Amino acid sequence: MASLEDLPSDPNYVYFKSVDRVQCRPILTGENAKPTFESIPTIDASQIFSADLEARKILAEEIGQAAKDVGFFYLVNPPVSPDKMDAAFDALAKFFALPHDVKMKYHVNNSPAAKGFTPVNPADKRKGFGGAREAFGMGNDYTNPEQHAIKVAPAGTVPLNQWPDDELPEFRQNVYSYFTEVYLFAKKLVQIFALALGLEETALDQFFEVPFTDITINHYPPQPDETEYKQVLYPHADYGAFTLLAQRKIGGLEVLNANAIWVKVPVIEHAFVVNTGSYFELISGGRWRSTIHRVCAKGNTDRTSLPFFFSPSPTTTIYPMVPAEDEGLKDLHRNIGKEHIRGMMADRPTHPFVKKLKALGLRPDDYTYEMVSQPLV
Q1: What domains sit in the chain, N to C, each tagged with a CATH number?
Q2: What are the residues whose beta carbons fall under 8 Å from the beta carbon of 247, sequence distance 6 or more?
Q3: pLDDT band of 215, cuts 50, 70, 90
């Protein structure tokens, strides 16, 4: 994953990381400016589980247009309990408040899937970040009984998630209560996206039978000496299908429009900010773009974001489900499990699992997601 020091600086261009390479966009103003968005659309999600197909189609039309024009939109009135969202935020605040040595017991290096705690990287400030960032992640782990409604892990599967049960007995329950509701919401949203492409409502279900899920909570602890408003997360595009982001109190998310102007995304509590990623860009034949975004904030503020990343099943190969508008996508097929392993190899070269995988000398075509959850020989 590129860092700020890897991105060139030019007053006439914005540089960003998209999928696996650095790209740039010219900053256009005045008569050179293109028609583009200047704010993020807001869509009412209250009809997503309506028994009325026409009501769901109206919602799908709004979402499809927003995904095409912006790639980001708010979903207000989602079918997720505000109390459960607040409880998840509160549980996470308690985790990040634990002593550093306690949090390190759950370091991501202890999980083959790199789930758990990521400590602050002191190099971040040297690279130009306006603050420090720590994180906690959880996702697919079918050894967890809370996920057995999705799938039961086969014999020999190793646990992937890590839970601070000794220090915070309520943490796991609060996070899973939130996860379960957002998961069901995301599964239904897949069907709304199918309608938005003019397909049958269940046409995309084949890609999401056992979807790839990931919650990576980012916490930016306050840095008293950092009072300047600046980047704390570099410009990038997401590679998944879509992200459901919950924000509370302090925002900082900004989205890049066609003129390379950053558009702020203010906090709407108990709503979701949704953005489409590169997997949906492929499935939609290029109709929906994976839009560039970043996070800016004052380093002396305390900020937590709660994104839920949703992608096709790890064993699935995706391709355009409608005629491709982008010739580069026309004949493209991507296997989700292989893409995940490639990404992990690039992003976490020092992780014990990655080192073991490299030691096996496998070619990228030999990668399978099962390698993460089964012991490597």
Answers
A1: 36-373 (2.60.120.330)
A2: 253, 267, 268, 269, 273, 305, 306
A3: very high
